[in-house]
Structure formats: structure tokens, C-alpha cells
Amino acid sequence: MVQNNKDSKPLIQPFKANAHLLKLLGDELIGDDRLAVFELVKNAYDANATSVDVTLNLSSDNPNIIIWDHAGFGMTQDDILNKWMEIGTNSKRSKNKVRTPAPLNRLPLGEKGVGRLAVHKLGKQLTINTRAKNSPEHQITIDWPKLIGEAQYIEDTRVSITPLDTPKYFVSETGTRIEISDLNNTHWTRGDLRRLKRLLTSLISPFKSVSDFDVKLEVPGRERDVADLLEAQDILDKALWTYDFIIDEDGQFSSTYAFNPPQTFKELASSSLEIKDEKLELLEPSKEEELAREELIRESLLLRPEDLKGIGPISGTFYIFMKSPAVLNAVGSPQLIKEYLKEQSGVRVYRDGIRVFNYGEGKDDWLGLNAGRINMPGQKIDTGMVIGGIDLNLEDSSGLNEKTNREGFDENDTYKRYRWIVASVVEDFHLKHRKDREALDMYLKGDVKDASPATTRFAESIEDIKKTIKKHKLEEEMSSKVAQIESDYHQMREVTLSSGIAGINLAVIFHEVERGVDDLNESIRQSDDYDTLLKRAEHLAELLEGFAPLLRRNEQKTFNIKALTQKIVKLNQHRFEHHNVAISCPINTDESDSFEVTAPYGLLQATLTNLIDNSIHWTNLKAEKEGSGFKPAIRIDSLPNWFKEGPALVVMDNGPGFSLTPEEAIQPFKTSRPGGMGVGLYYSDKVMETIGGRLQICSPEDLDLPEAYQGAAVVMIFS
């Protein structure tokens, strides 16, 4: 048989879209009824309307929903045929995305070309009346079930468009009126209506005046359901902390911080802090965040102008609350504040003053605040404590693209950088509010102390957790983690009471563990999601594991300190070179005297490494701020006769020095480093204490150090 290798002529055919696609795009793409109304109101903004009336006639014999924009562009017959009836039109995208005429000068928020189909989510019958300038009023009517049922493909559907000889709604103005009837949902509860009002209120940033756009909601016959909602400003005025920031197009960072305790807390002083045109220190990036940066700046510790590509300037405002009864009672209206925070807390995003859904909505935690608070509950905020807004410029934030379902931005590299930058701003607030938060906590605690032994409290909490886990049928997922925490805790207690390190006060660590156990128990009781429970349990385990080397029975040995410094320099040589740090260690070249110590070698190695890590970070930070004229430098040297207790080893650098006092710096969970846990120096201090020595933070003047090393100086003193 002879095969014919000649190719057959290809068939060239277009795709066909089934008419049912209209239902999919409208009914199933938009998340819920509230979001559908939200989308139609955003369309009114794009149409240059100055105000929108939203009316839900739910008590009438023929329930309907009306969205009526005033002074908007309206539509001509040509607009209806060639824009409104074209699904996915590019009339608002790319080169077509232009500002509306002065004085409003708006850029369109929508760009997918499918938002108009949100009407399908709400009801089966649609009537649109619209009038453009120098054009008659047109009426569009659609019976959705009939439209889709009588056509196989979208191009076969037929829509009735009627030019009206006499205007029905727009006699003297332009605009568009949308009426949706035969509603899919007529059973709007009181909660549904209140959430809709809050959603429409949140469309316009409460932190940035947008006087040219107003949204009004009316619910005839159901007015009482939405009558007693508090205005945003009534609540914001009761915040304990306020924090504003601006990042300009050059990456310059300015912020204003204020602490306003209740007037009845007379022992607490208010405070404020303002900085202008500084560089924002960024959190340590995840691998994804690092790769989202341009390659040449990936190791930069500070925000660079290149990081803002596709994002543009960023500004924002945070109002932070504490939900403890004592604070809420002191500021007044405690129940109203709790209810408002339950509905409205979170960090929202606005572009040109208009909200980007669904950031800050419900359980959304796009900045990871809740996970951060799990790790450091006394120093971090969670989504339930903050009412915040982040503002973007629509024209400059072209790299942030909204998802088609209107639930946030596409998670591309630009978004990953944006989220990381904002999270770093939140961390700046955390660091600034630390002292005031501690003062407030101390005030609230007063002289009241829990008289029950710590071990008893811990045992009771663990038993509660076990019972709660069993009740919620979480034994398989959580029991092993809880058992590990219980075992490590008891081992830690036993070792600290043994003769090896008798007298060391680890009470603060124990307190943190015990508080974490209580938080875990409360999370289980509240049926928090599994990821939250797991993070709480893992944090407790990591906290105990982090101090494990300190608690082990490390073998004492006598060795020359030069052996330790030589090993440390060798192990870190690649890091010194990578970070362009000049390292000096006169002990290694016999320019300074060495000495012998008797101590656990591994603990001292970990301690010295920790001090080196700190110096590398802070000298690099200073290098970035000061530019190419600054060279990071670290020196490890001996002080054999400086302290009466015995010889000492000092790690000094030419960084910015300590912003915390020496007493604060060695306390656990206190840090000025973004994202830092604040346990490194505390750990080092306890190591020195275990071997009978001590750790001391000195000023360069105290030690008469070389002129080149006028930054931090941390001394390990041996007895």
C-alpha cells in the first residue's frame, strides 16, 4: 500500500461562545450579591458620575434593585452597540485607558470588560435607561432566561434597545439608571444590609477625601436595619495609636506616629514621632520576594526606587486599637467599638481613593499580621486590631492588575514586592510603638500577679488543650505537637533548676511559653482554621528548641581563645567577602594577647557567631544609607586586663551603634531590627552567665577603642 504524504488542507475555524457563557461570567464569576452591587457602583465611578443612589426595594410587591448614577457620561447608541454590548471590550485598557475630562480627571478602575454582567448575579430582568450629552435617552431591556434560552451562541442573542422620544428619567442631566427585578435573592437579612452599607461606605477611602464621588444607600421599609451604624470617624477618634506614612516615587520614606492613651490613664503620657525623607529598612525577604526584585538590588536592606516599578508612590494610614476591657471601657462605647472592629477591621487597599476588593475584608490577612502576632503577641498587631488603608496612584500602579473575579491583585512579581514593602512599613510601626505598648501593658497589669506556681498554670493549660483537642476531634493533627511542647517545657524547667545553671532567670521565656499555650488553647476553642493552630503550636516548639543548646549539659573544656577566634573568622570569611566587610582580628596574628578559658566550646562559638551576625547586618545597613564612601568594618580583639573579673573578648564595628539602651538590648523580645525576634543578645547574655561571666554592651569611649570602630561594642567578660 502506498501512503500519500501530501498534507491535507487545514480547516480554519473560529471559536464559538455558547450563550450560557453570559450566565457563567455574570452569575458565577462575581462572588456574591454585595460584590455585584459594588461592581456596578465602580462602573458609575468610571462613567464620571458625581454621585450614585443605590436602592433596594425589598418590601414592595415587585422587589427590585436600582443603581442610578447622576451626571455620569451616559451612553449614546454607538456606545451601547460597540462598547456595552461587546463582552471583554478593551475600551478601558492600555492605550484606551485615558483620564476623564477636568475637573474630575479620573482613570477607569475597570479594565476587564465584564463588570456589566454583574447584573446577572442579582436578578433575571434588566432595564437600563441611559442618556449621554447631545443624545436622546435610550432604554435597554433584557430578560436573561429568555435571552440565553432562545440562542445557542452569544452572537445569536438579541437585545432590545429603544431611543426614547421623551426622556423618562434624564430630563436635564446625563447618566445611567439600572433597574434589576425578578431578583435571585429577596431575603436580605439585617446583617446582609448592614454589610452592604459598610461595603459601599468602604468604597471611598475614609482616610482620603474624595469629594467628587458620593454613594447613598436606601432600603425603603427597612431603614431601621441600617440606621444605627456608626460613622467611621466616630470610631477612628478612639484609636490608641495612629500611624501615617508616605513613600514617594524616589523611595523616600516619611512617617508620623502618635500614641494617645485614654485620658483616665493619667500615669501614661502621650507620645509622637515624625520622620521625613529617610530610607525604609525592609524585612528580610522570602525567596519569592527576593526574586521579585531586580537582580542588582536583591541584597539591598533598604527600599530602592527600582522596587517601586509598576507600583508607584504608596501612602497609608493605620488606626490601632486594643480590645482589652480595661482599655475599651476607658475610651468609651466598648461594645460599639468591638462590633465595628469585628466588621471593619483589617488593612484595605485604595487606588485613586477607590477601594480594591477584597483586601481587609472578613478573614483576609494579605500582610500576614495574624501569623506575626502568634510569634510575638505582646509586640505585634493583628487584623482585628487595625483599621487601615493603603493608597495607590492608579496611573503609576500599572503592574498591579486586578483579578477578573475582583478579589485582589494577580500575585505577580510586582504584587509580591508591593506586599513586602507594606509589610515592612507595618514592622516600622511595630518598632516605634514598642515602648508605649510596654508602658501600657505595665499600667494595665498594675500590681496584680498570678499567685499560682508557673508549673501549675502550665499543667492546667495543657490539660485544657488536650480536652479541647479531643472535643474538636483534632487528636491526629495536634496531639503530637502538644506532647512535644509539654515534654520540652518540663525538660527546660528541670535543667534550669539543676546545679549546672542554678540561679539563671529564664522566667521571661517561661512566661512567653505559658502565654503561647493559653493562646493556642483559645484558638482551638474558637475553632480557628488549621493553619493558624499549627502556626501557634510550631512557634511554641521553635521557642523551646531555640534555647535547647543553652539548657543541654554542655561539656566544659579548657582552650585558648585564639582557637575560637580563628575558627570563627574562617567559618565566616565568605560572608565577610560577600558583604564587603573588612575583618580584623589581632589575636589571630599575635598582635593582641590571647588567654585561656574553661567553658563549653559550642556555646561560646554560638555566642560569638551571634555577635558577628549582628555586626554584619548593622554595618551593611549603614553602608547602604551612607553610600560608596563607607566601608563596613568589624574587629574582634582581646582585653586581657581591662575588667577586674578577668580577661575579655570584644566585638566592635563601625555601624550605627545601639538605639536601645544596654539594659533593653539584652532583654528578650526587644529589638530595633525589622522582623527580628529579639532573643540573640539575651541568649548570649545567658550563655555568659552560665559559665560565671557576663556580657556587657559598652560605648566606644568606655573602652578607648580605635577611631575606626565607633559603632557597637559588645564584650564577653570571663572570670
TrEMBL record:
<dbReference type="GO" id="GO:0030295">
    <property type="term" value="F:protein kinase activator activity"/>
</dbReference>
<keyword id="KW-0067">ATP-binding</keyword>
<dbReference type="GO" id="GO:0007234">
    <property type="term" value="P:osmosensory signaling via phosphorelay pathway"/>
</dbReference>
<keyword id="KW-0902">Two-component regulatory system</keyword>
<dbReference type="InterPro" id="IPR003594">
    <property type="entry name" value="HATPase_dom"/>
</dbReference>
<dbReference type="GO" id="GO:0004673">
    <property type="term" value="F:protein histidine kinase activity"/>
</dbReference>
<keyword id="KW-0547">Nucleotide-binding</keyword>
<protein>
    <recommendedName>
        <fullName>histidine kinase</fullName>
        <ecNumber>2.7.13.3</ecNumber>
    </recommendedName>
</protein>
<dbReference type="Pfam" id="PF02518">
    <property type="entry name" value="HATPase_c"/>
</dbReference>
<dbReference type="InterPro" id="IPR036890">
    <property type="entry name" value="HATPase_C_sf"/>
</dbReference>
<feature type="domain" description="Histidine kinase">
    <location>
        <begin position="508"/>
        <end position="719"/>
    </location>
</feature>
<dbReference type="GO" id="GO:0000156">
    <property type="term" value="F:phosphorelay response regulator activity"/>
</dbReference>
<keyword id="KW-0418">Kinase</keyword>
<dbReference type="InterPro" id="IPR005467">
    <property type="entry name" value="His_kinase_dom"/>
</dbReference>
<dbReference type="InterPro" id="IPR050351">
    <property type="entry name" value="BphY/WalK/GraS-like"/>
</dbReference>
<keyword id="KW-0808">Transferase</keyword>
<dbReference type="GO" id="GO:0005524">
    <property type="term" value="F:ATP binding"/>
</dbReference>
<dbReference type="Pfam" id="PF13589">
    <property type="entry name" value="HATPase_c_3"/>
</dbReference>
